[in-house]
Structures are given as structure tokens and as C-alpha cells.
UniProtKB/TrEMBL annotation:
It holds the Pfam family HTH_23. The lineage of its organism: Bacteria, Bacillati, Actinomycetota, Actinomycetes, Kitasatosporales. This is Helix-turn-helix domain-containing protein.
Length: 182
């Protein structure tokens, strides 16, 4: 990390205390974002301020719950998604085939409707797109998350269960409620 004059550091900290984002402070002063972030961390630590990351998780706050978007996202998660939950990395990933560009758009839209605060990104893979959003609160929204195959997990103390839609009439009913792929 480069050494910066105390006046630059004080100016950066003053801007951050006024609510200016790390990214903007870094661009304004020509300093790497990681340096600005470190200064913010040290400033909070010196003042004894505990950092609590902002959240808009409907399970943890009083924010309204978007049931249709959540239901759609739950179906995507159970079908072609997973959650990575490690000490410093939490994200929901949904994989969508390139043949269904509308599905990719809908997955992104559903993530934003369920939890607007975390960023949503697309990453192109071979034959598919990964729609990804970083926040540890996805595990609040999907308590089914856990190790092993999804269909073999025990959910909230109940017996393991499988959901299968194999009959033509059942698929038609599901399409009526979820909508077709496009």
C-alpha cells in the first residue's frame, strides 16, 4: 500500500463521514478503492463504530415481500441454482441456457425484485449465462440451502421429500402458474 500524506487521508475520511461512497472518494482523490476501504475500516475501529452491512432482506427487515418474484426465483433456484455460503463469500447463482434469453432477463429481474439492494451480475459461460447476486441474506430467503443434493435434504426437521412434475397435466398446471420459457 502506498504512503499518502496525512492531509489526503484526513480529506478522504471527512468525505466518507459525509456519506460519500468509497468508489467516489477513490476516483476524486486518485487513490485505490482498497486503500479508501481500509481507511474507512480503521476510522470506524478508532471510533468504536460497529459496521453493520445494509440489507433489504424481507426475512430480516420489515420490507414488503414480493411473493410472485420469490416463487419464480425459488423455482429457478431449485432447478438450476445454488447458493455459495462461506465466511467471506455469499451469493446466489442461477444458470440459464443461452437458448432462452428471456429466461435470463427474468431471472435477473426476479433477483432484483426479491432483494433490490445487492448487485446482480451476469457472467457468460459456455452455452449458458450465470445470473449472480452477492449477499449473505440469500440463505434467509432459501432455508432449503445446505450441503448435498437438494432433493435429499431435510427441511426444518421434516422428512426428506421429492417434488416431481412428470405428468402432462401437472406440467400444464405448472406452466399456467409459472409461465413458459422464452
Amino acid at each position: 500500500m502506498n504512503d499518502y500524506s496525512p492531509s489526503i487521508r484526513h480529506h478522504a475520511v471527512a468525505l466518507m463521514r459525509q456519506g460519500v461512497a468509497n468508489r467516489d472518494v477513490a476516483e476524486l482523490l486518485g487513490i485505490p478503492r482498497r486503500t479508501v476501504g481500509w481507511w474507512r475500516h480503521q476510522d470506524r475501529q478508532q471510533r468504536g463504530e460497529l459496521f453493520v452491512p445494509p440489507t433489504d432482506c424481507p426475512s430480516c427487515t420489515s420490507r414488503a415481500f414480493n411473493h410472485p418474484a420469490y416463487s419464480y426465483l425459488l423455482g429457478l433456484y431449485l432447478g438450476d441454482g445454488h447458493i455459495v455460503s462461506k465466511p467471506k463469500q455469499h451469493h446466489l447463482s442461477i444458470f440459464c441456457a443461452d437458448a432462452w434469453p428471456g429466461l435470463i432477463d427474468e431471472a435477473e429481474t426476479a433477483m432484483r425484485k426479491v432483494m433490490p439492494l445487492p448487485s446482480v451480475q451476469r457472467r457468460q459461460k459456455n452455452g449458458c449465462a450465470e445470473v449472480k447476486s452477492y449477499t449473505k441474506h440469500w440463505t434467509c430467503m432459501f432455508p432449503q440451502h445446505g450441503p448435498g443434493k437438494k432433493h435429499g435434504r431435510v427441511a426444518r426437521g421434516s422428512d426428506p421429500f421429492n417434488i416431481s412434475v412428470a405428468r402432462r397435466a401437472s406440467v400444464a398446471l405448472m406452466d399456467k402458474h409459472v409461465g413458459p420459457k422464452y
